[in-house]
Amino acid sequence: MNAPFKIHGAAAREAFTAFVCDDATAELLKPIATENGWDHGRINKGGLRNAVQTLSVSASPNILFVDLSESGDPLNDIGSLAEVCEPGTVVIATGLVNDVRLYRDLVNSGIQDYLLKPLNPEQLREAFNQAQMILAGPRASEAVVDRPHMMAAFIGVRGGVGASTLASSVAWQLSDKQSRSTALLDLDVHFGTGALTLDLEPGRGLTDAIENPGRIDGLFIERAMVKANDKLSVLSAEAPINQPMMSDGTAFFQLQEEMKQAFECTVIDLPRTMLIQHPHLLYDVQTAVVVTEFTLAATRDTIRILSWLKSNAPQANVMVVANRVSATAPGEITRKDFESSIERTVDVVIPLDVKLATQAAKLGKPLIEVAKSTKVGQAIQDISGRLVVAAESGDKQAKATGKSLLGKLAELKTKIPSKKTKAA
User: Taking the C-alpha atoms of 40, 45, 48 and 49 in order, what is their torsion angle to the nearest 10 degrees?
Assistant: First the structure.
């Protein structure tokens, strides 16, 4: 299983083996086995008991499907399977018991997924696809890089400066090019473009979280987020504009906490109005990326937001990014005057390229995908690299001082609304 269990001899492993309790399940598995090039003869009758007996005397397969329908105590019986199952085997279980607690306990015991009967072909295909992706990833024997979690918030000083475009591109860059598991959290509940930019349907995950913050846990994150690629998942929304979404911010904070446990990177597309309503959303952010432009209004609002960040998020590294800067048509104010007004330098300047932006929108791809070798792409890569460096530098500093960032900000966390208790 996924945890280190009993190791047998170095016998060659089968790709797939199943132990089922009924003919209907066996018939559902046969076409899926054919699609994957697996032998039908590896689909056995007998369920969990037969699985334990068989695997006690033979090598474990890469993927094991086991039926718990005839088990009186699934959690205890899965422990018996763990004693005979070799490390590295991905286990998918199915059963009749509809209990979230059982699901969590089974996953914690080492199985990959628990599927509730009655089963359907698409559900099974998705489970086996996930299992094969796990097998294609790093093996337990391979070195695993211990990376500190990176959390960054993108804040546009004005509407339309391109903060959302940059957030989605940086999230894509971190996941696709740096192979870091990444969550993109788009907190513009009514008009967010995080999913749209990546050509995805946003789903109801974010609105469900706001309406029922007590439901938020690791399982909720797994089910609610939409995958953009193997390493990038998106939580976004398109709530009806006649439907106010009232929240004290508890749901947003809990989402961040769960994402820290599930992903290596969290990229937050944070509307500027939320700074006022929910300042606690910045408490664990390592870098606040302030996206601006060279206009008078943007200069004013950059000054105000930088001042706010200094007072309310002192732990955050602040990066100022000037977006869509034309090399030919001068802006309302020059870069020199802008930097003089905000009393600091601009960290990254992204040139205006209407053609690239239009192409990305038509293809339904993040800007970085169509701008890889351009100056725009290089600037976005620069932002991604700076975010990673800031996270790693902060982690090293925390280890050197013996204090975590969370420990340093404990007094701030006390101001956050506590998690609501579910009704009994």
Answer: -130
